[in-house]
Amino acid sequence: MSLKSGVRKSSLLLLALCAVFPSYAADLLQVYRAALAHDAQYAAARATAEAGREKQPQALAGLLPTLGATGNTFWNDTSYDVKLDTSKAFYRNKYNSNAYSVNLTQPLFRWQNFVQYDQSKLLVMQSEATFAQAGQDLILRVAQAYFDVLVAIENLRAVQANKSAIGQQLAQAKKNFEVGTATITDTYESQSRFDLATAQEIAAVNELEVKRYALGVLVGKDPGDLNRLKAKAVMEAPQPASMEPWVEAAERDSLIVQAQQAAAEAAGKAVDITRAGHYPTLDVVANYGTNNGPGQFGLGEVDTTTRQVGLQLTIPIFQGGAVNSRTREALARRDAERATLDSARRNAALNARQAYLGVVNGLAEVKALEAALVSSLSSLDSNRLGYEVGVRINIDVLNAENQVYLTRRDLARARFNTLLSQLKLKAAVGSLAETDLETINTLFEAP
Fold first, then answer.
1. Around Cβ 155, how many Cβ atoms within 10 Å?
2. 3-state helix, strand, coil in the chain (%, to 5)
3. Overall pTM surpassing 0.70 (yes/no)
């Protein structure tokens, strides 16, 4: 397959993506809201959170009364063989008996149930924090996918500009060879560079297609023409402008830390629950029941009604060591959760440091590349002027143009990385929200 054919097929694939996903034009905020409704990973997190919220009513049920009813009906065939001093008597009775009862139990003291209710609140807190973290992850995934597409576009432009410059170099080399002012080696070298640039263009087109498809998977449709970052977009430095407050906030407020804190406390409650296997339980028990059947020796019919109200005390004495074993298991799990909490705090601090440095160093890199772009544009103007007066050749102008595209690509990448670091910094301290996307969205404009 020729290189031109490869580029043609890549373009056809890009059109095919538009057929798979209905096209629409949207900004960053619209893409996020579409992903909020479509993303399967976020939908799974939402369903998991809904399941987690049921822990509390389930635990509350252990503190509330339970009411049950039973009923039965039996066909009975009873024989009586009565031996007297001087005679025997034999009776046989066939009859139907019916009975039903209603039982009420109200726990008064079941320590494990009280602790389990407290534990359920912690489990719900863990579930909610995990779900909130999934929401932050969705924001980051959408921003990353959105920015990746824009970076891929800038990269393709730079590659195409480079290919254009090399193409003109190749044409000039062929012309010089034809008139005898250059060797065939120059032509071969230019052709080699042109073929390499064509291969780079195919790779850049493929990368753009992959990035667009990844964004389309998030929102369920082709994203269409994305808004571009304004040329004079101003990105703010982190406030406070010191790393340590961010690190301290991350160790305390990170959603991952909050979820793990709740998990560690819940594991501590689990120890109390298992230890309660040694404790007595006290319940209020009430029973009402009736029984219908024949009297003794099948004589007559008797309706029996029973009413009972009282206290029921249960004292565990020995259970084969199971309670002690489960307690040791719970203690080990509690220690594991506490160690995981320490790890979560350290990772949160590391993420906050990395994100903070990403913003600060990113802003410095953006400033340097903005200066480099100004220099590249000045160089391009100088080369164009030199070409007009005959002191520069066409290749010099083309190389200067290519440098401008490369600098713009690097500047775009630095800007997007800085914006993503700003979002990651907010996520590290657990405060990333849709409003942060709204703020960043104001830095973009329609293409």
1. 22
2. 70, 15, 15
3. yes
**Contacts of range 133-137, beta carbons closer than 8 Å, 24 or more positions apart:** 133/255, 133/256, 133/259, 134/41, 134/42, 134/45, 134/46, 135/42, 135/45, 136/255, 136/427, 136/430, 136/432, 137/41, 137/427
Please tell me what DSSP assigns to residue 2.
-
- The CATH homologous superfamily of the domain defined by 3-67+110-281+328-445: Outer membrane efflux proteins (OEP) (1.20.1600.10)
Helix, strand, or coil (residue 91): strand
Q: What percent of the chain has pLDDT over 70?
A: 93
Query: In this predicted structure, what is the pLDDT of residue 3?
Result: 36
Gap between the Cα atoms of 440 and 434, Å rounded: 10
Which residues, at least 6 apart from 174, have a Cβ–Cβ distance to it below 8 Å? 187, 190
**Residues in the chain with pLDDT < 70?**
1-26, 182, 295-300
Say how far residue 26 (Cα) sits from the centre of its chain: 23
3-state secondary structure of 388: helix
Q: Which residues pair with 101 in a beta bridge?
A: 70, 289
Q: Which residue has the tokens 């998977």?
A: 217
pLDDT of res. 6: 44
Q: Output the pLDDT for position 22.
A: 46
For residue 13, what pLDDT is reported?
44
3-state DSSP of 134-147:
HHHHHHHHHHHHHH
